[in-house]
Design brief:
The protein is of the alpha/beta class. The protein has helices at about 40-50, 70-85, 95-105, 145-150, 160-170, and strands at about 1-5, 15-20, 20-30, 60-65, 90-95, 115-120, 125-130, 135-145. The strands form two sheets. The chain has a five-stranded mixed beta sheet with strand order 3-2-1-4-5, sandwiched between helices. A hairpin with a 5-residue loop joins strand 1 (about 1-5) and strand 2. It is globular and about 45 Å long. The chain starts with a strand and ends in a 29-residue tail after the last helix.
């Protein structure tokens, strides 16, 4: 399979091309804890990794579904779905925590472990995985100080790992819906209609 993958669940925007399990090209922008600039930086990163590749050559688009801050995450999901529509290919949704766990495994981490993503407001979304990379707890929100004790150090998911997880699951025939993973309500809410105070 030949996939373009995106992840915008953190301030680090990540884009990659992966063919048959091998990373062809990848690019990223930003740093952990930095400001989000997804709206203006994602398209140039996609253009950079695609370069001499046409969208019709792709077998699909993979995208990290979070958890993550609402605005940045939505930009990635909407972009992935739009590109998939134009290229007439399927889009695969992968939990950004699953991708982060896969990245740690690729780096040689053994046994069960916990990974976490900074979701702002001094909180992390964490999940624990067994030795077969199956989630055995989470995702859940915990205070940042508590998260740093169990995950060791903050990290960000890479689009390459989003693609690798998507390919593995696609080969197994697993459903991969593009559904954003939010662990709390967005800041903006619709207020209830106020009673009229007009006096007669």
């Amino acid at each position: 399979m030949f996939l373009l993958a995106l992840d915008t669940s953190t301030p680090v925007i990540s884009v990659a091309l992966v063919r048959n399990g091998l990373v062809v090209r990848e690019a990223s922008f930003g740093e952990p804890g930095g400001s989000q600039m997804h709206g203006e930086k994602l398209a140039p990163l996609i253009a950079e990794v695609m370069d001499d590749v046409a969208f019709v050559e792709l077998d699909g688009i993979a995208v990290g579904t979070g958890p993550g801050p609402y605005t940045g995450l939505r930009i990635g999901l909407v972009t992935a779905e739009a590109l998939a529509h134009v290229a007439d290919v399927p889009v695969f949704g992968v939990s950004s925590l699953d991708a982060l766990a896969h990245g740690r495994r690729r780096a040689g981490v053994d046994g069960p472990f916990t990974v976490g993503i900074d979701v702002k407001r001094k909180e992390f979304a964490i999940a624990t995985y067994d030795e077969h990379d199956h989630a055995i707890s989470g995702p859940e929100l915990v205070p940042a100080a508590e998260a740093m004790v169990v995950i060791g150090a903050a990290a960000t998911p890479h689009a390459a790992d989003v693609a690798l997880v998507a390919i593995f699951r696609a080969l197994r025939g697993e459903d991969q819906p593009v559904v954003p993973l939010y662990l709390r309500h967005p800041d903006a809410t619709v207020s209830k209609a106020k009673k009229s105070t007009v006096q007669r």
